[in-house]
Amino acid sequence: IARTVVENFFATVGQMNFYDDHSLTTRELFEQFFPGRSDVHRLLMEPIAYANGSTLDEPAITYGIVFSNFMNKGVYTFQGGTDKLIGMMAEELRQNGVIICTGAKVDRIVVEGGKVRGVAVGGRVISAPSVVSNSGITNTVNNLAGREAFDSAFLDQFDQVKVNNSSCQVYFGLRPGESFDNVGDLLFTSTAREFSSDEMLDMETRSRTFSIYYPRTRPEHPDYTVVASMNGNYDDWAFLDKAAYKAAKQAMIERCFVDLERYIPGIRAQVDWVEAATPRTFNRYTLHTKGTSFGTKFEGLGISRSIFKAVPGLFHVGSVGIIMSGWLGAINYGVIVANDVDSYLRS
């Protein structure tokens, strides 16, 4: 492929923004620059599919903004791990007067007279002029605020929103004293003949990514761990009985072991802890609709951005197709929404 073609692709993707024409799909974008090159499409698409659940037939902007975000400055592993990062964030919040309440499940967002009045938690109401929900836009509307809080026009738009897919993960912990050579921090692997969004979502997918954690990742806890991640559909797992569910998890663990041994031979004998999570796991612990890891598809962005206009004082931050899940997505989108909240409170 000519260097100019690659550079033009990067330039085009790097200039994408929220206000672009959303009719162009990622498939059409790839065909424009790399016609007939399914191998290139796979190279470009597979890592992003793990990051936000997008497919070739969704708006190219859902691919472009995430891709250019990754490629702009690179991707780095935070030394100390997520637990240290969360601790630093919590300390910063407390220094700014924030009270953090854990083990405090919000039962509902209180809406009275068409405006937010606070949240109901554990049988009491905490009053507040604004509420930022990170519960997922479908949970926020359907369950926390309740559909009765919104007018029919808003609900007509909201009902067009599709929930994004979920994930499966397998966690491998090495026995103390065991180690392996540096094979990289992030491995994308697939034995599927061609890239396919449907194949990546299949319970028996042959496509997965391995996140490799070395002692340098968490110097305070110098362990070797590996996390295998795969995309998944909630409905494939939701209705399995106990025995079938256990067998499906074990089969998934075995497939991950087989793939991982191609990169770290003999790791099976070094591992003393294995645990698997499925869309059912994520649904149980996060309460997200169908255990979604990535919120909604792109049409959820408009609902998320406009919810405070439907119910003054109610804001949402989280994954809506274009915004990645996890702490990075929360930071990216959180900055935008924090500005909205500040403007609302000062108005």
Please state the overall shape, judged from the principal axes of the Cα atoms.
globular
Detail the poorly predicted runs: none
Q: Please, how many domains?
A: 3
How many H/I helices?
14
* Number of E strands: 10
The biggest beta sheet is recorded as:
5 strands, antiparallel
Radius of gyration, CA atoms, in whole angstroms: 22 Å
The helix-and-strand class reads alpha+beta
User: Gap between N and C termini, in Å?
Assistant: 54 Å
This entry's quaternary arrangement is single chain
Strand order of the largest sheet: 6-7-8-5-9
Features:
10 strands; 347 residues; FAD/NAD(P)-binding domain; globular; 5-stranded antiparallel beta sheet; 14 helices; single chain; alpha+beta; 3-stranded antiparallel beta sheet; 3 domains
Task: Describe it.
With 347 residues, the chain is an alpha+beta fold. The protein folds into three domains: 3-73, no CATH class; 97-162 and 294-346, FAD/NAD(P)-binding domain (3-Layer(bba) Sandwich), CATH 3.50.50; 166-286. Helices cover 44% and strands 17% of the residues. The chain has 14 helices and ten strands. It has helices spanning 3-14, 26-33, 38-52, 60-73, 81-95, 137-146, 152-158, 197-201, 234-238, 242-260, 267-270, 279-286, 300-310, 326-346, and strands at residues 106-112, 115-121, 124-127, 131-133, 166-174, 186-190, 207-213, 225-232, 271-277, 314-316. Strands 6-7-8-5-9 form a five-stranded antiparallel β-sheet, with helices on both faces. It has a three-stranded antiparallel β-sheet with strand order 1-2-3, covered by helices on one side. A two-stranded parallel ribbon has the order 4-10.
